[in-house]
Amino acid sequence: MKLSIVLSTQETQFQAASLSGSLETNMANIASLGYQGVELAIRDPKLVNMDALVELTRKYGLEVPAIGTGQAWNEEGLSFTDPDPEIRQAAINRIKSHVPMAASFNAVIIIGLVRGMLKPGVTPELANAWLCEALQACSWAARPAGVRLALEPINRYECTLINTVAEGLDLIRMVGEDNFGLLLDTFHMNIEEPVIEESIQNCGKRIFHFHVADSNRWYPGAGHLDFPAILNVLAATGYSGFISGEFMPKPDAATAAKKSIENLLPVMNRLMP
User: Fold this and answer.
1) pLDDT value at position 15?
2) How many domains does the chain have?
3) Which of 79, 146, 208, 221 could potentially form a cystine with 263 if both were Cys, beta carbons 3.0 to 4.6 Å apart?
4) Residue of 152, 158, 177, 197 marked active site
5) Does residue 123 contact residue 114 with C-beta atoms inside 8 Å?
6) 198 is catalytic
7) Is the pLDDT of residue 193 over 60?
């Protein structure tokens, strides 16, 4: 397993974007700290200079394990479960537009809040049907490029659809596509899962990406989560991808990024065969 950290390609309202601002400055700092990858939060691929982005990742020797898409919901209100069919289709089209970039980086496309919320007059059954339909359409579009999608179960205080790992696994069965899996996040699991380690075990090979933040959504080591136990169980599932820091930039972004890798790297090294 390797370590990465979330970097937004633009200023964002999302409080747990670990880093944002100058891409080159941030990538230089990320690489200097010893991270091997950078998870990119991208609202709209059309707004990103792909050639420049590729050049920067090569310059600093960083992989891109995943692309976050939640800003399409936060900033634009796009979602798979909006009552307006035009908005639902726009959300599907936006996720499809990430496929070429994801393919070029061999990155997972994250489905976070773009899944949407329950709106007045929409039953959970109808919302889940729309969600399943959208995820199937996006999975089919991603398959020829070899791209995978990962939905993140998000805690009940921030989202009204798919809060737990069990609900995520049920959704995987409904969607029925082998390039669709889950992104697990320790902050959300701390709220929703009775035993985090058991939920990780239950996911097995359907874990496509993994986020870390401590119980207070600060960097790992700032709260009470047992990261050695969590990462040991994750490794036992056969997961060999990236552990990506998505936490609040507290007390400041630079300190949080530094503390995270300082606290996680010894744990990761002990897991190495």
Assistant:
1) 52
2) 1
3) 221
4) 152
5) no
6) no
7) yes
Q: Quick one: average pLDDT of 264-272? A: 85
Q: Calculate ∠ Cα 124-99-103, nearest 5°.
A: 135
- How many H helices and E strands in the chain? 11, 8
* Residues in Cβ contact with 58 at an 8 Å cutoff, skipping those fewer than 6 apart: none
Among residues 203, 214, 140, 191, which one has the least CA distance to residue 167?
A: 203
CATH classification at residue 148: 3.20.20.150
Any catalytic annotation for residue 152?
yes
The pair of three-digit structure tokens given for residue 165, joined into one six-digit string: 């790992």
CA 264 from centroid of its chain's CA atoms: 18
Range of the domain at 152: 2-271
The pLDDT value given to residue 255: 94
Residue 159: Cβ within 10 Å count? 19
The burial class, CB within 10 Å (0-12 / 13-18 / 19+), for 82 is buried
